[in-house]
Amino acid sequence: MPAVVSDLWRYAVKGLDRDSLDSVDLQPGAGFPADRRWALHFEDAEPFDPQQPARLQGAHGAGAEQVSKGGNSRWLHKSNFLCAFTAPELLGELETCFEGASDVLTVRRRSSGELLLRACLTAAADLARAEAWFSELHGRAVRVVQASGPHHFGNTPAGFSHDPSGCVIHLVNAATVASLSAAASLSSPPLHPARFRPNIVVSAAPEWSEFRWVGRRVRAGSAILEVLSRTVRCPAVNVDARHGSGKADIDVPALLSRHYPQHGPYLGVYLRVVRGGVLRVGDTIAVEPAPWVLALAAAAAAAVLAGVEVLLASHDLDESLPPLTGGAIDNGTLLRASTLLVLALLLHPLQRL
Fold first, then answer.
1. Spatial CA neighbour of 237 closest among 194, 207, 205, 294
2. How far apart are CA 229 and CA 182, in angstroms?
3. Cβ neighbours, 10 Å, residue 135
4. Are 191 and 252 in contact (CB under 8 A)?
5. What is the C-alpha to C-alpha distance for residues 91 and 327, in angstroms, rounded to an integer?
6. What does the alpha-carbon distance between residue 2 and residue 206 come to, in Å, rounded to a whole number?
7. Cys-Cys link to 122, which of 103, 193, 302, 333 (CB 3.0-4.6 A)?
């Protein structure tokens, strides 16, 4: 059964709340439009060069701080930003909304709904006001920085290492999240997919089946995506302000390693767009057959059809057999059509390999 898209989420500012989308226009090598387009960069952290936006892509794990590819291009670790990794509980107190048509960010206090900030991130005066506000909030000077072109402030170097001009998309399987909740006896409340900050949430897929997609291509709506890698989880997922307590009271990476040692602290997968198209809530995501399966199926079909042609060349079926369709179709054509039908039925299960 193919997976079904249940949610599409964009995070315009790295580390802040998601915005729900009904559909998204996917372009090759790009992520969701405006996803992680802005970030809150600590002024005293590793420098950000606006002329080299590819230098700023957050990454998980040790050794991810700098990788060179093509000159001095590099990405920076997420510890250089005010985000869910560096201040999960503080940012969890904020409820944010980004209006894509106007580039306006609205910040409210989650507990009361009090308006705290409303600023256009593409207007200089508003941008300065937003920087001052976030700096005062955290107590450390913050700059609101923007990636240009196809770049974004992603959570993985996967897009960078595969293609320095590319972006990645994050997918989480709701059944996998539910499986972890059940294994860890978390029921009030259970873990929510939003805790893992995905762009795409799927349902109807078996738990952990998304890990078998790595290295394969999937058809998502009218787009084709390549599944690059599993997603390693960091302490940022220990806090869920919207669906959990808002405190770092669950060690999710440890739970993953304890209950699923065969997988380790991984949940979700990263993808990149290979062929553009539109993806909508309710669309299916189907795994395309592996190349070796297609090659095997093609070879088998060719061999069988060649055998049919040899049979037809050595026997006149219209003379040796009565007209099987009353003469409407000659027996040779009927045999060819029947062979193709049987091959289709036999080879169909290979699509799941």
1. 194
2. 25
3. 17
4. yes
5. 77
6. 9
7. 103
Is the model more confident about 20 or about 61?
20
Integer Cα distance of 54 and 43 in angstroms? 18
Question: In terms of Cα–Cα distance, which of 286, 291, 290, 288 is closest to 220?
Answer: 286
What does the domain layout of the chain look like in residue ranges? Answer: 3-287, 291-352
- What are the tokens at 176? 């996998």
Q: Is the pTM of this model over 0.85?
A: no
**3-state secondary structure at position 291:** helix
* Count of beta carbons in the 10 Å neighbourhood of residue 250: 17
Token pair of 272, please?
A: 């990149």
Which residues are paired to 20 by β-bridges? 9
Which residue is listed with tokens 């000659």? Answer: 330
Phi, psi dihedral angles at 114 (to 5 degrees): -60, 130
Give 166 or 243, the one with higher predicted confidence.
243
CATH of domain 3-287: 2.40.33.20
Least confident stretch, 169-183, 219-233, 239-253, 284-298: 284-298
What is the distance between the alpha carbons of residues 11 and 98, in angstroms, rounded to a whole number?
8
